[in-house]
Amino acid sequence: MTPGASLPPLSAAESAHASRVRAALIAKIRTSGGWIAFSDFMRFALYEPGLGYYSAGARKFGPQGDFITAPELTPLYAACVARQAREIFQRCDGRAILEFGAGSGALAVDLVRYLADAGIEIERYSIVEVSADLRERQQERVRRELGARAERIEWLDRLPAQPLRGLMIANEVLDALPVERFRKADGRVERLGVALNGSEFALVGRPADAELAVAVNSLPIHGPELYESEICMLLPAWIASATQALAAGVLLVMDYGLPRRQYYHPDRRQGSLLCHYRHRSHADALAHIALQDITAWVDFTAVAEAASAVQLDVLGFTTQAHFLMSSDLETQLAAHLEQAGAGRAATLQAVNRLLLPGEMGEAFKVMALGRGVSEPLEGFRLRDLRHTL
Known about the structure:
By secondary structure, this protein is of the alpha/beta class. It has one domain: 3-Layer(aba) Sandwich (Rossmann fold), CATH 3.40.50. It is 36% helix and 24% strand. It contains 13 helices and 16 strands. Strands 2, 3, 4, 5, 10, 14, 15 and 16 form an 8-stranded mixed beta sheet that branches. Strands 1, 6, 7, 8 and 9 form a 5-stranded antiparallel beta sheet that branches. The protein is globular, with a radius of gyration of 21 Å.
């Protein structure tokens, strides 16, 4: 499989990196009997030390990277999260924040600022970051923009053992968990993986093992027609591990995804796999390996089930647009525009991207998973979609 013609060509440095990635991946496939599961390929492409997309040093976020996340569009996103955080802090009697995968550090910086402006000094802000490169960039930004408050932010290699009371944040984290690609037709389930076809990498199916077959057959996929999609088998373990230290508070999950019945709708028979390279989105995971992001939409029904299994309450589920509007985005925007000057147009454009259905407004969802916190939460007051799960 070759990259689509619409993708920009690789630079000389990228081409050299691609050659190293190719050699390492070929060796991995050969030592694995000529085939590796797609989940192993995705883990290699994203996280292989020194080679993977999140382990190498290329810029990933912003105009010079491959994609832009909501916190980088405008600090108003963080302003709305801060408003929800204030309510959560009051409900759980704690002021700690733990963020998984902090990206460029934009959300952390803006959250600390907005909370401080509201008279709330956080007890600590912990960041769990698997990428050494991103950690270094986050630390530089935090030191540059937060001054003395930077001392309240810590970086962790693993989840804390110390109980946490407050807010956990997973913004565009679950979509990057390695998924299993599968193919189902006439009641038979195949597990897709990556093999060599001559000198090229190719997706090749093998009969699914019992665990995957049971999981796929439990999905609302019916009929004899070929259906190809993905399932994240790691999700329950991730939710359990991430919230183990949550004594009281809320995990906010923000990501693009759907309830299960919509995720595995008959019209979505090619799945949701999406790759990002220099702000081009496409579905070819074998293009520009380790130089592009690979993601899959989140099955939010699976998130809710995983939460229930570890005694977490689903306190709300809504679209990003409704979460932001419920969190008083309109008032925040008006105040921001008064001081924006020449930046008014850019601010309005960013807010439109956050809200419009054709942009991030509908595709991105927000789910609140809580322990020891009562509902309702402000961010879900305009529209709560829990009945769709």
